[in-house]
């Protein structure tokens, strides 16, 4: 599915469709359907024998069929609606549970256990109520069906007794007929349960069909290109996540091969959205994005994404080993020497070598056993192994301490060498040497040029520089003053 699908559907809801809905359909096909087929064969066989014995009494038996249908239809419809609501509620519950479990540290640091406990109990109570309603309708349907069947038996018995009294039927034929009739009660009940199960499962099948029929990303068609040495050009791109809310307005920029293009500006201006469009997570509403003379919309999606490397502020690390995370999504086999080589380039070799299992060290879900700087360097090593033609950095050092930032910045400097690099940075000191800086505000490019040019000609950029570089100078001055005072205080003791 495209990224936009997951914008509108919680991961827990999708997994509920994959697991709970499909399990309900599986139970229908694997358990209820075979029993129904057996009952149907038994039903047909018995009815053939009954027709051969006495077609008039067999015809009378069919009078009860409309009664059974009148009972089954409204109850089945109600059961179906309840089953759909129950499955929706279960999907919602799974979605919230997955979200809370995934953010356990936030929940605990916010002391929100009581809130989540209350929310969980409320969800479970709603599920219980749906289950109770479902059970009530099931308990009503069974006795009503049985009553209808027993009424049919009594009616046929009375009719048969009259025929025997008149001499038009022998006692043996009537009891044989009744024997087969009693044997039909089980299959008839099973058929009723089967149609009830179909009604309940129809909600699940609808949800699964919605999932199956959703538009998938086309990853196989399109041109295969080599982005190396080609200009990346964005021309007059408009985009909004919602039709009536535009995020980008006529954004244009150009990235020459092996240059560094930086994006600066206020938060929420649309910088990360530009990256999403370049990755083709979304398509522009208007305008074009080209690599050389080729619109990237015409490029094979797999081929295009294989040539892009993204290192973001929130370095994505999956549960598994360091080896698994380095080679994630890549085809082919990689030797330990190759993996250690990219770890060395990312300044990650030392800390991985110190781990008990080295490359086979388990990093935990979302890499929780690694520090922020370690996760960033693993992500950079992965990018080295991927060897992308276009490198995109999104605040890659923003959340790191000074020591980790220095190591990560060194690794990034190596990674950026001889690649077309796009950088998003709020810290202007990291992009002053960029070949071009594009200032993005309110979804538009309000100015671009080198750092010196923007300082001279762009008022808001001037303010950013004054604020940030002034604060950095002040911090540096305070640090030096503290160090000098510490030296003076330690002087006599050292002497």
TrEMBL record:
This is ABC transporter ATP-binding protein. It is found in: Cell membrane. InterPro entries: AAA+_ATPase, ABC1_TM_dom, ABC1_TM_sf, ABC_transporter-like_ATP-bd, ABC_transporter-like_CS, P-loop_NTPase, Type_1_exporter. It comes from the Bacteria. SMART domains: AAA (SM00382). PANTHER family: ATP-BINDING CASSETTE SUB-FAMILY B MEMBER 10, MITOCHONDRIAL, ATP-DEPENDENT PERMEASE MDL1, MITOCHONDRIAL. The lineage of its organism: Bacteria, Bacillati, Bacillota, Bacilli, Lactobacillales. One of its GO terms (molecular function) is ATP binding. Residues 1-200 form the ABC transmembrane type-1 domain. Residues 232-467 form the ABC transporter domain. It comes from Loigolactobacillus jiayinensis. It is a multi-pass membrane protein. CDD domains: ABC_6TM_LmrA_like (cd18551). Keywords: ATP-binding, Membrane, Nucleotide-binding, Transmembrane, Transmembrane helix. Its main location: membrane. The chain crosses the membrane at residues 28-52, 59-77, 140-162, 174-195.
């Amino acid at each position: 599915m495209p990224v936009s699908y997951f914008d509108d559907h919680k991961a827990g809801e999708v997994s509920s469709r994959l697991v709970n809905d499909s399990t309900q359909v599986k139970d229908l096909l694997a358990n209820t359907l075979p029993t129904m087929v057996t009952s149907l064969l038994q039903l047909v066989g018995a009815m053939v024998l009954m027709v051969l014995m006495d077609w008039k009494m067999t015809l009378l038996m069919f009078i009860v069929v409309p009664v059974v249908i009148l009972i089954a239809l409204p109850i089945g419809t109600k059961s179906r609606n309840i089953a759909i609501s129950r499955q929706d509620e279960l999907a919602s519950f799974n979605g919230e549970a997955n979200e809370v479990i995934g953010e356990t540290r936030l929940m605990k640091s916010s002391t929100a256990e009581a809130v989540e406990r209350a929310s969980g109990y409320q969800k479970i109570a709603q599920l219980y109520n749906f289950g109770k309603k479902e059970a009530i309708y099931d308990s009503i349907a069974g006795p009503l069906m049985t009553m209808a069947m027993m009424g049919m038996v009594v009616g046929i018995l009375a009719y048969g007794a009259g025929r025997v009294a008149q001499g038009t039927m022998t006692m043996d034929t009537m009891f044989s007929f009744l024997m087969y009739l009693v044997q039909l009660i089980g299959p008839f009940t099973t058929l009723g349960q089967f149609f009830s199960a179909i009604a309940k499962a129809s909600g699940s099948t609808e949800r699964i069909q919605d999932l199956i029929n959703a538009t998938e990303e086309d990853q196989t068609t399109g041109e295969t290109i080599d982005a190396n040495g080609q200009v990346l050009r964005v021309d007059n791109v408009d985009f909004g996540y919602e039709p009536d809310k535009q995020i980008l307005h006529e954004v244009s920029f150009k990235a020459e091969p092996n240059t560094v293009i930086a994006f600066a500006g206020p938060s929420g201006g649309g910088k990360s959205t530009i990256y999403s469009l370049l990755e083709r997570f979304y398509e522009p509403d208007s305008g074009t994005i080209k690599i050389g003379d080729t619109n990237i919309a015409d490029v094979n999606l797999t081929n295009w994404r294989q040539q892009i490397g993204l290192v973001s502020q929130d370095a994505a690390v999956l549960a598994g080993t360091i080896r698994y995370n380095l080679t994630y999504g890549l085809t082919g086999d990689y030797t330990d020497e190759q993996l250690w080589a990219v770890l060395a380039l990312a300044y990650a070799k030392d800390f991985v070598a110190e781990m008990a299992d080295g490359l086979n060290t388990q990093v935990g879900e979302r890499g929780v056993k690694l520090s922020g700087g370690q996760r960033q360097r693993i992500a950079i090593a992965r990018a080295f192994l991927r060897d992308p033609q276009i490198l995109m950095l999104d605040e890659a050092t923003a959340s790191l301490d000074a020591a980790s930032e220095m190591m990560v910045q060194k690794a990034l400097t190596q990674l950026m060498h001889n690649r077309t690099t796009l950088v998003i940075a709020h810290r202007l000191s990291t992009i002053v040497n960029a070949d071009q800086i594009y200032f993005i505000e309110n979804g538009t490019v309000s100015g671009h040029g080198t750092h010196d040019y923007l300082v001279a000609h762009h008022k808001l950029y001037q303010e950013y520089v004054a604020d940030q570089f002034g604060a950095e100078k002040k911090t540096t001055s305070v640090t030096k003053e503290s160090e000098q005072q510490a030296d003076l205080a330690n002087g006599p003791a050292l002497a």
